[in-house]
Amino acid sequence: MDYVLEMKNIFKSFGPVHVLEGIDFSLKKGEVRALLGANGAGKSTLIKIVGGVHSQTSGEVFLKGEKVNFKDEYDSKMKGISIIYQELSLIPTLTVIENIFLGRESVRGAFLKKEDMRKEYEQICKDFDFNINPDVITSRLSIANQQMVEIMKAVSWNADIIIMDEPTTSLTNNEKEGLFKIIKRLKKSGKSVIYISHILDEIFLNCDSASIMRNGKLVGNYDVKDLTKGKITELMTGNTNSGIKEKKDQTFADYKSEPVLELQNISRNNVVKNVSFKVHKGEVVGLAGLVGSKRTEIANLIYGVDKRTGGTILMNGKEVNIKSPTEAIANKIGYIPEDRKNLGLILDWEIYKNATAIQIDKFKTRGFLDPKKEKEFTGYGVKKLGIKINNAAQKMKELSGGNQQKVVVSKWLGQDMDLIIYDEPTKGIDIAAKEDIFHTVEEFSKQGIGVIFISSDLDEVLRVSDKIIVIRDGSVVCEMDNKGISVQDIMNKIFDV
Ligand SMILES: Nc1ncnc2c1ncn2[C@@H]1O[C@H](COP(=O)(O)OP(=O)(O)OP(=O)(O)O)[C@@H](O)[C@H]1O
């Protein structure tokens, strides 16, 4: 068999922690292979070995039959491997076009001319059905656009093997379509793709085959046509009953008392436009809309990240004027942000310091922080959300992406709140662990806390919400009671059908 990549009996340990235990993985020319597994199963670690970021503790890697030992990331790139990592690797101070062509000159053996770069850039934009100003400084772009640039950069490298680690997490539907087209084109031209995603629909749409991992071991290799979502979940977790619920089955909303939050015609310039809605005690309000519909911008006005230019916000019947996240927390508002890397976590800190950052005063003994108390609290969150860690003093950056996200959620457990906002909380979370996040929503609402739940996954919005508010272009389109409505009904409102 002609394999472009073969990994044989790969072991990887970080000190005493065994992350990969005897993985065999292979990829054929023109194959699109999914790499699946629960959060912390070892997917990213495996591809980081192919990418020259980590070297294996033991085992062998072959490229087109030839044994390789990558010296570093550059070496892997030069041998024809291009990776889109979960965390963006662009240089924020460079322009988009500079980022895309960075390091490419040496591949061609001569400097690329500016005009050639522009021509190539235009072609990539056309292929992606996408339009980003090449001269804009990258840090000025939205996270979605930065991710798109990252993808364009990886694909334009002209590698034989392209590895995508959760590439669609912040893309709009159009951009996703663009990416899926690119994958088809890559396949047709004989390139091979490894595709990691927790969104199983994407696997069925794009992949030929799948390798499933569990706890650092390979469960097996499968043809995607022989798999179902249920089967994948079962193979990933080793559990035949994942307890996944389709629908919300109880409500804790209290419509008799004063709403915990009332927005009256709030606006910000021409971005958020006269938005009004109420959140009652224990009520879960889902905000549905396309990526870019300005749901996060509304949340940012409530949490004091951005300044309102109009309208009034009431909490428990009283007008509030929250000017910063610190003031929001003092007003009993919690916020689980979409951009966890920049807003929710400090990756160089220990897990327990991240987990306790918001409620720090609770963990003091005689005025001093007590690490024992902090670790106890962290342990509580770890158990509640099934977070996979080795010990609470590990650095945050050592956790898998999905487990980092769970720590962001765990920070708010036990906090005295009237309202909590979840913004895309299940990004990067595996299918079984999503349910743990939904349970926290349920528990908060059971305690009488109002919840705003933002998600691009409408099944999720239906799963958790009492009421759904459809947002389009910064305005409220309608409010829908979650009674007998379907994803299609919400879609119709989103698209104005
Ligand atoms: N540098 C490190 N030191 C210690 N442990 C690490 C390090 N890097 C990763 N790990 C551990 O290895 C395990 C596998 O992590 P990895 O990121 O490969 O998982 P994953 O399958 O990609 O998960 P996710 O779906 O959440 O992204 C995790 O338990 C993680 O904590």
UniProtKB/TrEMBL annotation:
It comes from the Bacteria. Keywords: ATP-binding, Cell membrane, Membrane, Nucleotide-binding, Repeat, Translocase, Transport. Residues 5-240, 255-497 form the ABC transporter domain. GO terms for cellular component: plasma membrane. It is a peripheral membrane protein. One of its GO terms (molecular function) is ATP hydrolysis activity. The keyword Transport applies. Pfam families: ABC_tran. It is found in: Cell membrane. CDD domains: ABC_Carb_Monos_I (cd03216), ABC_Carb_Monos_II (cd03215). This is Monosaccharide ABC transporter ATP-binding protein, CUT2 family. It comes from Anaerocolumna aminovalerica. The lineage of its organism: Bacteria, Bacillati, Bacillota, Clostridia, Lachnospirales.
